[in-house]
Amino acid sequence: MSSDAPVTRTEIFGWSMFDFANSSYTTVIITVYYAQLFPSVIVGDERLGNLWWSIALSISYALTVLTLPILGALMDHVGRRKSFLAVSAAITVIATAALGLVTPGAITLAVVLLVVSNYGFSVGESFIASFLPDLGPAESLGRISGMAWGLGYVGGLGSTALVLFGLGPPEVGNPLTLWAGPITAAWFGLAALPTFLLLHDRREARPVPDLRTVVDAGFGQLADTFRQLRRFRDLAVFLLSYFWAMAGLSIVVSFAFIYGAQVIQWQASTQAMMFVITQITATLGALLFGWLQGVLGDKRTYTITLFVWVLAVGLIWATPLLAEALSTNAEQLFLGVGSVAGLCIGATQSAGRTLVALLSPADKVGEFFGLWGVFGKLAAIAGLMSLGVLQTWLGLENAILLTGVFFGLGMLFVLGVDMDRGRAAAQHPT
Questions:
Q1: How do the domains of the chain map onto residue ranges?
Q2: How would DSSP label each residue in 365-411?
Q3: Which CATH superfamily is domain 9-203+210-427 in?
Q4: What tens digit of pLDDT does each residue of 194-248 get?
Q5: pTM for the whole thing?
């Protein structure tokens, strides 16, 4: 299709369906189910398992950081973005399905498969995001991105419900837990098909250059991008804010249900209820904040989500104390806090994705979304490894406060972003 062909609602739906598909991986594997199964069943020691969990995810993010500049440069050059997206999805699906081979004590195999599957997922996030600027005018991107995040949480709800209620709790003695990976892989693969059938690539395809040219171009482009950030000052400041926000959010996504199991010590019924509540509130939050982006502006909406996160982390830490002071059940109080926090899980990322799209020059979309991916993965490494080490010393219940510090730093840095100046620089680069 030519680059000036009109975008249809069907195509936007196709783009959004990738969020519906890949949310099965991040929800089932990274957040809700396998995140609890790994330390308690595969490793068999909670603090050691938490540390290995942080290490596995951090390695995958480090690999993303090392390869994404090359892949971004190659994608910008050859223009076949759907091919890159397809390969990343295939990597995730195959490695996730192979998690069905992991048995208790097989820590090395589990770590390797987590690294590979999360790597595919992580680079795929940047690939799919690079299509966003093509899907509508600047004032509509927040709504489109929010709709996709909302649809993603519907996918997360359906896939995790299938695993959680179909297989039973992720605990010792349940043989059905081996099917968590294969079921998630099947969901991801099938749900992603509409993306490849309906989404058009509005970049002219060109021949693939030799490897050395790609490597030189990738890291040379990355170095040049960092130098050019002087010209895109507001994008640079926002990326610093995004770094701290994602450091906090990576902990929330990877440790929320681990925290519930190890600190709150919730029952299986409470775990299931938390999952349902957070998926519903995350869906509503993505749609609500996507609408607010059009009313209040993208920067202000993003800042509001970070403020809510700071409050939520403080309440999560104080849940046992508040439950005792109020003579109420800690599990029920944790559910209430989780429902509020859930509003911002997708909204923070959706608003951030839109801000990058608005602050990036049109001819460097792949490059700057590659940089966005690099910042996000470096942030995840910093957040997960900081918490993983800190919780071995202070315990997870106290180490979680670090998350609030990260969100607070994100709020502080975004105050320096001038959207009018930033958008002018992106539209008229010199």
A1: 9-203+210-427
A2: HHHHHHHHHHHHHHHHHHHHHHHHHHHHHH-HHHHTHHHHHHHHHHH
A3: MFS general substrate transporter like domains (1.20.1250.20)
A4: 999 988 876 665 555 555 666 666 666 667 777 776 778 888 899 999 999 999 9
A5: 0.75
